[in-house]
Amino acid sequence: SRDAWKIYCASSEETAQEDGSAENLIDDDPATIWHTVWSEPHPSLPHLVVIDLGRETACSGARRISSSSA
User: Fold this and answer.
1) Distances (CA, A) of 39 to 2, 17, 21, 35, 36
2) Which of 33, 40, 47, 55 is spaced 20 to 30 A from 14 at the CA atom?
3) Sequence-distant (≥ 6) Cβ neighbours of residue 22 within 8 angstroms
4) Chain-centre distance for alpha carbon 38
5) Phi first, then psi: what are they for 25, rounded to 5°?
6) Is residue 22 a contact partner of residue 32, using CB atoms and an 8 Å limit?
7) 54 Rama sector, left if φ>0, alpha if ψ -120 to 50, beta otherwise
8) 24: helix, coil or strand?
């Protein structure tokens, strides 16, 4: 279950001009996206997001879904 998942930190999120919050990575909604800041000066690459899974968890992979605007 993803109920205990939390975004621990994100190096960049666009929240001024769109809802590009890192929380969108774990909301189980493919219509939402995480987007790095683009509306103002922003940190340089690379960007990172740390997800706290709420407990020790074995992980064998991750799935990335591209946005329709990619």
Assistant:
1) 30, 7, 14, 11, 9
2) 55
3) 7, 10, 13, 34, 49
4) 15
5) -65, -30
6) no
7) left
8) helix
| Tokens representing residue 62 in the block | 């991750």
State the amino acid at position 36 in one-letter form.
T
Amino acid at 5: W
What pLDDT, in 10s, does the model give residues 7-53? 999 999 999 999 999 999 999 898 999 999 999 988 899 999 999 99
On whether the CB atoms of residues 54 and 5 are closer than 8 A, the answer is: yes
Residue 47, token pair as written in the block: 């960007």
pTM summary value: 0.82
56: left (phi over 0), alpha (psi -120 to 50) or beta: beta
